[in-house]
Amino acid sequence: MSEDRKLIEELLFSAAKEQRRTRRWNIFFRLLVMIWLFTIVGTVVFSVKDSKSRPQDYVALVDISGAIAADRDANADAVVTGLRSAFEDENVRGVILRINSPGGSPVQAGYIYDEIVRLKKTREDIKVYAVISDMGASAAYYIAAAADEIYANSSSIVGSIGAFMASFGFDEAMANIGVTRRFYGSGEHKALLDPFQPEDPVAAEHLRGTVRNVHEQFIAHVKEGRGERLSDNPTLFTGLIWTGEQAKELGLIDGLGSASYVAREVVGVEEIMDFTLKPSVLDRFASQIGAKMALTLGTSLGLEGPLVR
């Protein structure tokens, strides 16, 4: 009888425990739904208030901040979406690209560059101004070159017109510790970036040519965008960087000033409206966990292919 009672007590305890667990999850999901609803309502309310308080004329602002890559905030889809919204707004009198980036993907930069060129043809009454804050280097300058005019602070870092591809060589270290690499693949140069095998001279020369071609494309776009404003300094396209003051002398930028200065003194409009496409809170949270750590490390070490930086 005592065993039966003990069994019944255990069953009742398990049932109660399961009910408490279910109740907790129900509360958790209800909170999530409430947060989601409040977010939606808040977004709608603020959007309505913002639309009512908008001035008649303003300058559109689109931020390019951080590394330029498909998985970062400064990706082509986000930047292009902001630019398109700005050009579709009849109250916009000018567009400012506020840049603070060390560079990144030449592909993403190329998409943005081409879209700026296309959009400028749709509204000849709107000019695009690139304003570099702390840094506008490499792929970031690639994008800036598409603007009608470029401005920076006297101490901004500008330039780095070049391309690179980086890897490692661990083959000698492996030999010293007695580790053998076993690689099975097809294609004579399929393992051209394998850091655990000796460098293939033929593949290495091919990679140098690939990076050189990316560099040539970069130079062509800068020359297309800047034209005769560029100086004939032989170091211009060597990957060197300059301050904003030096960049002005080289023709890499047109003047010194901030985004508010350009809006007020160049465009002639005081108000600035932010058209930057920003990720949601949940998107930002998701981007900071899981596989992002490995991807960030690969980007930092230059393991994801040719990068314009």
Pick out its properties.
2-enoyl-CoA Hydratase, Chain A, domain 1; 309 residues; eight-stranded mixed β-sheet
Please describe what this structure looks like:
There is one protein chain. By secondary structure, this protein is of the alpha/beta class. It has one domain (55-300): Alpha-Beta Complex (2-enoyl-CoA Hydratase, Chain A, domain 1), CATH 3.90.226.10. It is 49% helix and 14% strand. It is built from ten helices and eight strands. It has helices at 2-53, 76-88, 106-122, 139-144, 171-177, 201-226, 244-250, 259-267, 281-286, 292-300; strands at residues 58-65, 92-101, 128-137, 149-152, 157-159, 241-243, 255-256, 272-274. Strands 1, 2, 3, 4, 5, 6, 7 and 8 form an eight-stranded mixed sheet that branches. Helix 2 runs parallel beside helix 3. The radius of gyration is 27 Å and the shape is flat. The termini are far apart. The model is unreliable at 300-309 (pLDDT under 50).
